[in-house]
Specification:
heterodimer, A: 5-stranded antiparallel sheet, B: mainly alpha, 13 helices, branched-chain amino acid transmembrane transporter activity (chain B), membrane (chain B), cell membrane (chain B), transmembrane (chain B)
Chain lengths: 273, 309
């Protein structure tokens, strides 16, 4: 147990009126790694994210962040500890400029965010830092653009810049490449790789190509429970993962071959047991 | 529409000259409602909170000022100050209860609390019940300037309005205002960046309530009357109309909206159409929502943006 974990959960459970969305999930996120959470639709990935960032309260279980119990903390308080999340739909402030978006994050650490009697000019010293962050994600030329006018890929890049502004220790990215074209996917993947230096990233991702490129460690969820965990090669070689994650493809194969259907049932039984 | 110094100067001068052309009491009414709508717009337009009980704050300001002016012989500036503070205090309590709720629930809580206060003012001995507080003396400003002169009073009301308008402008364009806009735009994101959003909403609510109280106090002085109409939910609805019609989320919108609504009401109530005021206002509201959702100022801004930039 000498490994340094930034985030640990033990037997995390979330029940919604009798439906168990997350079923005793124990995660150990190693410091400095890129950890991916994958699984078929409805596997509970986003619910796990919401539990970790306190947007939902777990029914049972514990969450430790840097050894500190954050199970009952409020979302904003968790964020102030350096655990910052992104959202599935791009989380920007659409009618503010690109620069202002990043500056909102930078403002958090200033003491003037309640000062309603002062001009916003007092925020101008933050602009240089904001531009630097925008430069990092290749958006500096759009600084004065209203965010709503940006392309989808650029909005996601802006979101990452905003998250980076808080210099998070642990970044949680919820499907960062969802809904993107090929070029954008590569750009964002490269961006994630770039910003992963000196910090830990936990991401939910559907695009296995991206996962294979980025993730040091992968946890596979199915029906709210951990199916398996390991690096890309071991996980992708696991037949249960093929069954579960590529369920549709496997089903097609199965019906084509006319056998092995009982295997799948067996896997599912083992998982839910 | 950038608020350049010349434009501001022109508006200020126009306001100074206006009572030479238009009946001052009418102008004062417009200014009071404009201030009320500006205060309301701080919440709806810049924080994304639809309060449906803002009459409670206007009425509280009015009653407190009226009561003090009649019974204690306070000078008007102190009367207005006390009314404003009282509305701020009510706003602080109501805000605490309301800002934890979102969307329609926030609107319902503010409406319910306002109705509660309406009942209190209906029953309480110091408000004069159905009659209201009549014959509130205007007094003399600082004990020196006689406010029974409509021109003197107009310039006081105008100064108060400019102060309130400036405060809303300052708040919107402040570090705090930036956070408010972020909350309006994407509340979960603001939370995930570590902002305690209920705290920011609460401060905005208190500022808005106090300014609404300031408008109510001033209005009581102008009409020498504080009545149940000022706390009635009709008025809470009217301020929504003014803000939407003028353009919510724009600085000048509520001013324009209040001007249009008050003008229409005054115009109609004198003529044969007096009984149809509600219907006509309703039609205007529907047309506004269907055809120009950005309001008068919002649409103008869009036109200017499209054609000149």
């Amino acid at each position: 147990m000498s490994t340094d974990y930034v985030l640990q959960t033990t037997d995390l459970v979330k029940e919604f009126k009798g439906f168990t969305a997350v079923d005793s999930v124990s995660l150990n996120i190693e410091r400095g790694s890129i950890h991916a959470l994958i699984g078929p639709n409805g596997a509970g990935k986003t619910t796990v994210f919401n539990l970790l960032t306190k947007f939902l309260t777990p029914t049972r279980g514990r969450i430790l962040y840097n050894g500190r119990d954050i199970t009952t903390m409020k979302p904003a308080a968790v964020a102030r500890l350096g655990l910052i999340r992104s959202f599935q739909i791009s989380a920007v402030f659409p009618h503010l400029t690109v620069l202002e978006n990043v500056r909102i994050a930078l403002q958090r650490k200033e003491s003037n965010s309640f000062h309603f009697w002062r001009s916003e000019k007092v925020l101008e010293p933050l602009n240089a830092k904001a531009m630097e962050l925008l430069d990092q994600v290749g958006l500096s030329e759009f600084a004065r653009t209203t965010t709503v006018d940006l392309s989808y890929g650029r909005k996601r890049a802006l979101e990452i810049a905003t998250t980076l502004a808080l210099d998070p220790e642990l970044m949680l990215l919820d499907e960062p490449t969802q809904g993107m074209g090929h070029e954008d996917v590569d750009v964002v993947a490269a961006l994630i790789k770039k910003v992963s230096a000196n910090r830990t990233i936990l991401m939910v991702e559907h695009n296995l190509h991206v996962v294979s490129r980025l993730a040091d460690r992968i946890t596979v969820l199915q029906r709210g429970a951990v199916l398996t965990e390991g690096d890309y090669d071991s996980v992708s070689a696991d037949p249960r993962v093929k069954e579960a994650y590529l369920g549709v493809a496997a089903d097609e194969e199965v019906s084509a071959e006319g056998g092995a259907a009982s295997d799948k049932v067996e896997v599912q039984e083992r998982v839910s047991a | 529409m950038k608020m350049t110094k010349t434009k501001i100067a022109i508006f200020v001068v126009l306001g100074l000259l206006a009572p030479l052309v238009v009946y001052p009491v009418f102008l004062m009414k417009v200014l009071c409602f404009a201030l009320f709508a500006c205060a309301f717009n701080l919440l709806l337009g810049f924080t994304g909170l639809l309060s449906f009980g803002h009459a409670a704050f206007l009425g509280t300001g009015g009653y407190v000022t009226g009561y003090l002016m009649i019974n204690t012989g306070l000078t008007p500036e102190l009367g207005i100050l006390c009314g404003t503070l009282a509305a701020g205090v009510v706003g602080a309590v109501y805000g605490k209860l309301a800002v934890k709720r979102e969307g329609i629930y926030f609107a319902m809580v503010t409406l319910a609390l306002a109705q509660l206060l309406f009942f209190v003012y209906l029953q309480a001995p110091f408000t004069g019940g159905e009659d209201g507080l009549q014959g509130v003396p205007r007094g003399a400003l600082f004990g020196l300037i006689d406010l029974n002169d409509n021109m003197n009073l107009y310039y006081l009301v105008y100064a108060i309005f400019l102060f309130g308008f400036w405060l809303v402008f300052r708040t919107v364009h402040s570090p705090f205002g930036q956070i408010l806009k972020a909350i309006r735009e994407n509340e979960p994101r603001a939370i995930s960046l570590g902002y305690n959003v209920t705290q920011y909403k609460w401060v905005a609510f208190v500022i808005s309530a106090a300014l609404a109280g300031l408008a109510g106090s001033t209005k009581t002085l102008v009409f020498q009357l504080a009545s149940l109409n000022d706390v009635h939910w009709h008025l809470s609805g009217e301020v929504v109309l003014m803000t939407l019609l003028g353009g919510m989320g724009t600085i000048a919108g509520p001013l324009v909206g209040a001007g249009v609504v008050v003008t229409i009401q005054n115009f109609l109530s004198g003529g044969e159409l007096g009984n149809y005021v509600s219907i006509i206002m309703g039609v205007i509201f529907i047309v506004c929502v269907l055809l120009f959702r950005n309001g008068i100022v919002g649409e103008l801004q869009r036109l200017i943006k499209r054609n000149f930039s």
